[in-house]
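Thread title: Can someone regenerate the structure for this chain?

I was given the following input by a collaborator and told the matching structure tokens would be attached. They weren't. Posting the sequence so someone can regenerate them.
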Amino acid sequence: MSSGDKKAKNGSDDTRGVIDTPLGEDWLSIQPYVEGLSGFIGGCQTPMTIAVQGDWGTGKTNMMLLAERQLAPHGHFRLSDPPKNAPEATEEAPVYTIRFNTWQYSQFEMQGRLVGSLLENIGAHLLLAEPGKKGAEKRKEFLNALLPIASTAGLSVLQTGLGFVGLGALSGVVQEVSAEARVALAKRNGGAPVEDVAAVLVDVKAKFAAAVKELVTADGDADTGRLVVFIDDLDRLEPRKAVELMESLKLFLDVPHCVFVLAIDFSVVQQGVIDKYGSRMGRAKARSFFDKIIQVPFQMPVGAYRLEVFLDELIKETRLVLSDDERSSFLGLIQYSVGSNPRSIKRLINTFMLLRGISTIGRQQSDERGATGQSTDLQLFAILCLQTAYPDAYLELVSGDVEESSIFQRFFVASEGNSTEADEVQNSADAEKLLVEAGIEAGGKRFGQLASEIMSQFKNRDGFDVGAFESVLRQAITTSSGADSTPSTSRRGPKVYGADARQQRIAQKAPWAARPGALALPEQFCTRLEDSSEQVRIGVPESDTQGWVIEVARKRVGMLHVRQKFVHVSLEPRWFKEKNPKFFYEKFRKQFAGDADLLERVDVNDYGGFIINRIKPTEAELLGRLADFWVDVIQEDLDKP
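Best answer:
Regenerated them for you:
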């Protein structure tokens, strides 16, 4: 097979994803914050504890990597990197850095002794520092002092773990020192368990302080360096475990010459405090706990991220080719969906590249068959933004008849071509209620803006292309969580229009509908409405054949609920141009004020919509008057500019 054939078979050979491993690269243009943080770490008084705070995926790890490289530009001083034989010359007091990933170590069933693991890790790294410098006795003593508080497996667990995480060079150091410590410990107490844990911890802390001082104090010089320990992924731990680790660390956080930098989300601390101490410990108590341990909070500057620069880097990585307009549309869709979260943006781009590859192959095959109507990259990306940021809303749209979805009616059809009206609809109280019902508990305003951005990608000369919208929704099922890729039995399916088609479809599900004259009452109503304007249609869906949909200019404005012995008629004025949706109900009450029995049969919802219940064949005259009322309402709406 030729390379050209391979490309045609497998899609574009330029298709690439982006890795989610922090690279220590400033793709978000936050250098002032990096320099400010690293400058404070390198110049503050010690001991000091700093919290790098931010939601999941906001770039805490990358920020710490950037700050570490700013602090220790000479690789030798970054002790967690592969050690070098000799340090670079520096006129400044050296800053030694160590990285510790709590989540990584917790995978080795060491959750119960993460503090011990951290200290053992620090001790092993301290021994590797300054290999040409004599006088490492204090650092050896510190590592030896840890053996009494080690687990049954002792420091050998650390040795195994270091091999797994790619720090095999430390294994030999640990093995050598732990062997010496075991002999010393056996001579001291006959190998018996250490009973006075508090005394051991005090001893460990003292030896830790001495080990750090030994390393950072220049020979015969009062000017000393410092040790900076970056502790990452605390918020990936179970919240209670994260709090317990912070409590245990408190003893070691106030060692001179040390700066501890913890990556933690405050919400995790809050939940952990509640989990450990009970619901009586609210946000204020959690804040007090946080402030006792953390001296300086640093919030990730998400609002300052330059997403256009970040997107450009991702475009380079994936080898996408976008015009300026397409790039602008991508940015708008990102901002109204996943926002400024770098990890979510990467995930979104990766999902797009996967689905785009599938779409490319499908497009090639369609071209070969002469088929048309394939989705564009922007349409695909728009739907993926919806799917990623608002999965429940996406599932509602894709799992049923799109046009019958309240989300679709509220945020897509109702606002078509009218940005002012769209803002009113998207920010109204009932819109928020719709979002909550769809599982969208927050961000209602942004959802409305996203809907407007999506709509702009599905506009053609005839308006909003519902068919293309639904097609791409179904296409994106491949990358959704919780959607069924098989045709759904709950879908209403396409609607049929016209008296004959309506009668035939309902007769398939309701045998009584085939009897002569059985549908005379609802058809009387339909005829009156459809004769009033070419823009009025009444359609019967495939599955819900007794729920007839009243449409004006392709927008659902009401329903006829057809039963064997009566019909219900509902009006949904929220889709009309009237600013006050209850205007129609008020008008209805005035027009039928003399018919108390009728008004008692009316149910009104929060949106100003109302339904007239149980209209029987003997009430054909009443149904005619209702039809006239409807025609007036519709005509008034159509006459508005």
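Residues 307-479 form one domain.
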